Amino acid sequence: MGKGTGSVQINHKIVRKLPPWSEKDSRKAEGQHVFIIGSKGIPAFYGGFETFVEKLTKHRVSVDIHYHVARMAEDDIHYEYNHAECFDVNSPRIGAARAVWYDLAALSASIRWCQDNPGIRCPVFYILACRIGPFIGYFKKKIEKIGGILYLNPDGHEWKRSKWNRLVRFYWKVSERLMVKYADLLICDSEHIELYIQKEYAKYNPKTVFIAYGSDGSLPETEEKDSEYTGWLEEKGLKAGEYYLAVSRFVPENNFETMIREFMLSGSRRDFAIVTTENKKFYQTLERRLHFSRDKRIKFVGTVYDTELLKRIRKNAYAYLHGHEVGGTNPSLLESLGITDMNLLLDVGFNREVAQSSAFYWTKDHRNLADLLEKTDAMCPEEIHEMGVRAKERIRKAYRWEFIVDRYESIFLNHEADSA
Question: How far apart are CA 361 and CA 88, in angstroms?
């Protein structure tokens, strides 16, 4: 195996190695080069931005677009995946600041590569999230010098997340303002986020466009995972069609406290299966407040990274509970609308924008969700099926990945920053 050749396994997938960026090679400069910065990279293992980049590159139509995708890693590998050139960025483990370091290093490497390949015309630098605002003015000058364009996905209201202390929240807010100020175009995956950007930062006259997050809306493809799903049910003490389901990160702003408390108040005879990440501190806090361990219906079932298995878990849930309060279009909600018939969502603008009339909504008021759970428990199969038809139709019309990718390619190729 020669240098820069052969293959390597990343996130359980085999990819083709490429020569390091520092080496001269035969890659052509023509076409539209798009550098994607801010995801943890592809192949995607988990996460909203990661899944977005995976689908964007997988469903690429135009051969004139050349994607370059940064990956947060401790390796130093340059490889090809989904016809995209992917490059590792080694970032030190310095807590919350690691993501900032990573974005800066990835952007620096991307600009440097363009400087070393002067034949590239009008490269697009698409940054996901607003982490590097205090530094973006410096980089914008470099981008303009090489004839480049800066696009930004502002994500959701990161500065509202309870996991950050007051100082970090202040940084996020300042960073967001500066990213909006210097971006040539903001691509918002939520109409509510787009409206917020236009109103909050009107003095910058930001150019924005709305392109939703996507979903394939697909049901499980084969039966080969059926036995694995049956084994999962037995292990977790669940029965198909007899559990409510939540799938999200275990953080306060996803309103687990309300969902668990209300479920305990309800008279439902079904279980509540919670697929989530580990957060011992938050878990212990909720246990002290709610004593949910005394309720055998409340089942924390760990994480599920196998996408086909997770589809079966969603498909066979009696209903899906969604408590997200911060952020834009949520990938987990889209997946649920495409697979689970009954969806019960926290009543906030983001969720209503996505699901519209294809779901039921609850508030954080005492017994509001508990009453809805009891009402849902009493629904007949025909009513539940009708809600499922509405949800799948909503995904088909507004959130298909093919439609989303087509919009992105139009922007990348036609540089809508001046016309959006």
Answer: 42
